Amino acid sequence: MISLIGLPGSGKSTVGRQLARRLQLPFTDSDHVIEQRLGCSIREYFEREGEARFRDLESEVLDDLTREGTGVLSTGGGIVLREANRVHLRERSQVVYLNSTPDELFRRLRHDKSRPLLQVADPLGKLRDLHQVRDPLYRETCRFSIETGRPSVASLVGMIMAQLELKVAPVH
């Protein structure tokens, strides 16, 4: 299994879909699985039940998905906040960190109302805070990091494919 981690808006779902297509593997977005289980959006659940309850469910879903062991998995941006999640990711998958700067993410997300953590007065400041807290956790968890910068999705997929071929035995 290949798992993509990174801040909200770093391209995990978009890149993950294309990577899975290139590798002819199934693609799973953990946020979509969570929403299917909930029967509502993550934003609604987050507002109603709070972040801690959401993180509990997110951990359960990650545990289930990483046990399955095949395909490409896009994770939620906060998945690395819990040690157990970092361990599951490292032990059960090849983890790729899609690293984006807060400024770059802000340009992509400034009009996106679906992300609960960014519905604040200063979303750029929030992204900077998230990056400061989560970047070391992403780096601790990943096998390798890809700087997203301005490359196209196809270029990012190509860079990941090259890293997988260099650093890893065959993908299962």
Question: How is this fold's topology laid out?
Answer:
Layout: E1 2-5, H1 12-23, E2 27-29, H2 30-38, H3 42-49, H4 51-68, E3 72-74, H5 83-92, E4 94-99, H6 102-109, H7 123-141, E5 144-147, H8 153-167
Parallel strand pairs: 1-3, 1-4, 2-3, 4-5
Give an overview of the whole structure:
- By secondary structure, the protein is an alpha/beta fold.
- Helix content is 58%, strand content 12%.
- The chain is built from 8 helices and 5 strands, in the order E-H-E-H-H-H-E-H-E-H-H-E-H.
- Strands 2-3-1-4-5 form a 5-stranded parallel sheet, sandwiched between helices.
- The longest helix has 19 residues, at 123-141.
- The chain is globular and about 45 Å long.
- It starts with a strand and ends in a 5-residue tail after the last helix.
Radius of gyration: 15 Å
Number of helices: 8
Major β-sheet profile: 5 strands, parallel
Fraction of residues in helix = 55-70%
- In the sheet with the most strands, the strands line up as 2-3-1-4-5
Q: Hey, roughly how much beta strand do the residues contain? A: 5-15%
Low-pLDDT residue spans: none
Mean pLDDT comes to 90
Helix/strand-derived category reads alpha/beta
N-to-C SSE string, H for helix and E for strand: EHEHHHEHEHHEH
Number of strands: 5
Shape: globular
Q: How far from one another are the termini?
A: 6 Å
